[in-house]
UniProtKB/TrEMBL annotation:
Keyword Signal found: no
Stored SMART domains: AAA
GO MF assignments: ATP binding; ATP hydrolysis activity
InterPro entries with a match to the protein in the record: AAA+_ATPase, ABC_transporter-like_ATP-bd, FeS-cluster_ATPase_SufC, P-loop_NTPase
TM segment ranges: none
Keywords assigned by UniProt, alphabetized: ATP-binding, Nucleotide-binding
Family, per entry: Belongs to the ABC transporter superfamily. Ycf16 family.
Keyword presence, ATP-binding: yes
UniProt domain ABC transporter: residue ranges: 4-249
NCBIfam families in the record: sufC
Matching CDD domains: ABC_FeS_Assembly
Name assigned to this protein: FeS assembly ATPase SufC
Length: 253
């Protein structure tokens, strides 16, 4: 059983005009086995939250705390965060020319486990996970993210998720740019990872579409750098019907 605790997190981003406050006191607790959806309008700070937890240098934590099983995440290097069991797709470089998907996955697995996986078993596991995601075997030989389509990037993300078996996974806009078939395959991958790893999930999304395939236990509406409302899956349905207007007018009032 693992817990990610975000406490009163305030974050500023570096801009040319100086630091700009984006997150204004975020409180969130995610336990193993739970799926949380963060939904909110564009520019509300959802990606900032993900980048901050990932340890992106551009995001300055001005106050607040983040703990994974009582360990201070904000004091960890990006690598240490991954080893501690946090999965944040955006912590990986956008393109890694010359490094194949197969080598990348094996290196990541070795770094996280502290030892190389047994080869036979590992090859089986990779092939199985790729089959599940309906990925062609030749994909493993391609350079990481080089010329990947939107759908391939997302599948690669879920492939990592299935193989690296994190404790807590944060997926930012995993649904964006996917057609319905790819959305289904990617969602099935997340649901499989939920079952096989028992991880806790934070799904960040603008649209309610993916929540038809991945059922959240909790929905948090994110507006203007903080959680404006929380509820169960019914809140996502309400957002689908009503949009974010109600929250936006409340935030500026
Ligand atoms: P969301 O993911 O909800 O669309 P973001 O976290 O991407 O929101 O952005 C929140 C706000 O912070 C926006 O106003 C955006 O312009 C600003 N912002 C985020 N990252 C940067 C950055 N690197 N430089 C300047 N402004 C940024
Ligand atoms: Mg955005
Ligand atoms: Mg975003």
């Amino acid at each position: 059983m693992s817990t990610l605790e975000i406490k009163d997190l305030h974050v500023s981003v570096e801009t040319k005009e100086g630091p700009k406050p984006i997150l204004r006191g975020v409180d969130l607790t995610i336990n193993s086995g739970e799926t949380h959806a963060i939904m909110g309008p564009n520019g509300s700070g959802k990606s900032t939250l993900a980048y901050s937890i990932a340890g992106h240098p551009k995001y300055d934590i001005t106050s607040g705390e983040v703990y994974l099983d009582g360990e201070n995440v904000l004091e960890m290097s990006v690598d240490e965060r991954a080893r501690a069991g946090l999965f944040l797709a955006m912590q990986y470089p956008v393109e890694v020319p010359g490094v194949s998907v197969a080598n990348f996955l094996r290196t990541a697995k070795t770094a996280i486990d502290g030892q190389a996986p047994a080869l036979r078993h590992w090859v089986k596991e990779v092939n199985g996970a790729m089959d599940n995601l309906r990925m062609d075997k030749s994909f493993a030989e391609r350079s990481v993210n080089e010329g990947f389509s939107g759908g391939e990037k997302k599948r690669h993300e879920i492939l990592q998720l299935e193989l690296l078996k994190p404790k807590i996974a944060i997926l930012d806009e995993t649904d964006s740019g996917l057609d319905v078939d790819a959305l289904r395959v990617v969602s099935e991958g997340v649901n499989r990872a939920k079952e096989t790893t028992g991880a806790g999930f934070l799904l960040i999304t603008h649209y309610t579409r993916i929540l038809r395939y991945i059922k959240p236990d909790f929905v948090h509406v994110f507006v203007n750098g903080r959680v404006a409302e929380e509820g169960g899956p019914e809140l996502a349905e309400r957002l689908e019907a009503e949009g974010y207007d109600r929250f936006l007018s409340a935030a500026t009032a």
